[in-house]
Amino acid sequence: METSSARDDQSLASLLGGRTASIDATLPPVAFVAGWLLSGRSVAIGAVVAIVIGLAVAGFRLARGNRPRAVLIGLLGVCVAALIALYTGRAADFFLLQLASNGASALAWAISIVFRWPLLGVIVGLLLGQKTRWRKDRALMRAYSLASWIWVLQYVIRVAVFGVFYAMQAVVPLLVARVALSWPLIVLCLLVSGWVLRQTLPAGHPGFRKPQIVEIQQAPDAA
């Protein structure tokens, strides 16, 4: 029989997995670098190919019934990245938006933990319709805070790797890092953060799907 914590690990992965989105997000960068290399290192052609592939992915996902907002945000990211590269004339700048967004994400997640609103709890709470009830469970709050540091770490890893290759203007290594640090790193992050949640919650806790809110009862007035 599956334990409650084992089910929690699986449900955490199903809630936050995003494998399809991660794979889709790697296609335009691959298209950009392929177009750039095959055209004799033309940034313009690489940008056009990336946008065409981005449009194709967006159209396919919309036809499959994916949320329009998420699809359009992804397409907007591709267009902005292409415009940055076109403006500067440097192919490596196609990855500048990715570098900046990961830096901002690391900072946002760290700040959320410091201010006791760990983003892992915020996101899972919204997805489960719990709103902010999870914050009234001290054990769950602590578990979310510790697990959220794993997400900070994944963004820091990306910033460190992308930053080195960007400083070198190494376009192909940037692409390899972009692919390697997308879904594979997210899978590892989900596994480790799920393990941290499981290990941090006290024995007998029903898991993140059932926040435990302890009501403080006042003692009756003395007669």
TrEMBL record:
Q: Which domain of life is it from?
A: Bacteria
Write the record's keywords in alphabetical order, separated by commas.
Membrane, Transmembrane, Transmembrane helix
User: Which InterPro entries does the record associate with it?
Assistant: UCP010219
- Entry keyword annotation includes Transmembrane: yes
A single Pfam family it belongs to is DUF3159
Spans through the membrane: 43-63, 70-87, 107-128, 149-169, 175-197
This protein is called DUF3159 domain-containing protein
Provenance organism: Fodinicola feengrottensis
Provide the taxonomic classification.
Bacteria, Bacillati, Actinomycetota, Actinomycetes, Mycobacteriales
